[in-house]
Amino acid sequence: MRFETRSVHTGVYKDTTFNSVTTPIYPTSTFYFDRIGVHKGYDYTRTGNPTRAALEENLADLEGGAGAVVCATGMAAITTTLHLLQAGDHVITGNDIYGGTYRLFDDLMPRMGIEFSFIDMTDPANTEAALRDNTKMIWIETPSNPLLNIVDIAATCAIAKQRGLLTVCDNTFLTPYCQRPLDLGCDLAVHSTTKYLNGHSDVVGGAVIAKTPEHAERIKYLANGLGTPGSPFDAFLTLRGVKTLGPRMRTHQENAQQLADWLEKHPRVQKTYYPGLESHPQRELIARQHTGHGGMLSFDIDAPAEKLDDFFAALDIFLLAESLGGVESLIEQPWSMSHASMGEQGLKESGITPQTIRVSVGLEHPDDLIEDLERGFKAIG
Ligand SMILES: *Cc1c(COP(=O)(O)O)cnc(C)c1O
Asked: Does the N-terminal peptide bond of residue 143 adopt cis geometry, omega within 30 degrees of 0?
């Protein structure tokens, strides 16, 4: 069956008592046994819950994995995945990964004895050069945020496979609708389901999807041991959201493409970043790797930084906010908001300036979005 059909149906039918067409929420911490050793597959909700299991089945299917664990947040999913490693291991990752992941890798995990190299992963030769004897994992996040640089997943996984290293891809930005890391060779895909998978800005959640049953088992064991799994209520909402993932992603990317094409020609825009643009320097890799380009774009505005407040204030539809992937369009300045923790030096090195503006393109009518941005440009003269 095809993606849209599976996203609507897979894992959903858990209620055999009343044949509900949606998955009930099982808000229970514990499950009673019929007698010693006999229960109906669940004993305690941290370990397993039918509502969460429905979402896990669905997400594993959409990513093409053997199993999944749904976590309380995206960071909980990432923390769980890192526990496949132990003290003394080394990880190679990008220097432009999500800020929360960067903090975990740069500050928290090193205290537990795990080492990280942050490199420019857009050239696989850099990844090869960063390998050490104790390298155990390559952590990919593509496209990058906010400049939409692309890492070659298949080429990076080929380097890892030769040496038996684990490969993980944070697939939050594109979702399995637009990119399938496990098919391209990754062992694991992770998500902040907070973003497109739930898609309605009303849940924080995460997920880890494993290609093999062995990794899926290990991830379940780790999540239970660490206490990272998500709540049944959040799983219910996310399962509701994921049923419309295909149609939402199609509209997100149609709208983003229209905005990107328009922004690229706008006299007040210096540069537009979107994987669907012909002008993207990695056009050929994108054609091989993506089955869609998602709804995230950025642009460098041609205006002094002091004028940005006027630009944002003139917008009626776009909300000035961090986060992404919801039905409503959001806009922000990575320099002072989502990426501020990188510090001025780090921001400059990665090509982010105060003029860089990031947009999460929502599901509104694209003409309304273009008219709204034009109001912003008019306000800065
Ligand atoms: C938001 C995000 C995360 C973290 O997810 P939370 O749900 O906020 O914990 C991780 N990776 C990427 C790419 C994200 O955008």
From this structure: yes
170 as an active site residue: the answer is yes
**pTM listed for this prediction:** 0.97
350 in the same domain as 281: yes
- Could you report the per-residue pLDDT of 181-207, keeping only the tens digit for each? 999 999 999 999 999 999 999 999 999
The predicted pLDDT at position 350 comes to 84
Q: Among positive and negative, which fits the CA dihedral 81, 83, 89, 94?
A: positive
- pLDDT (tens digit per residue) in 346-358: 888 889 999 999 9
172 lines ligand 1 (CB under 6 A): yes
Per the structure, the count of domains in the chain is 2
How many CA atoms, within 13 angstroms, populate the side-chain half-sphere of residue 203? 30
* Contact (Cβ atoms closer than 8 angstroms) between residue 124 and residue 275: no
Q: What is the DSSP string of 11-26?
A: T----TTT--SSPPP-
Whether residue 31 is found in the same domain as residue 163: yes
User: Is residue 204 lining ligand 1, measured as CB closer than 6 Å?
Assistant: yes
- Residue 333 sits in a domain of what CATH number? 3.90.1150.10
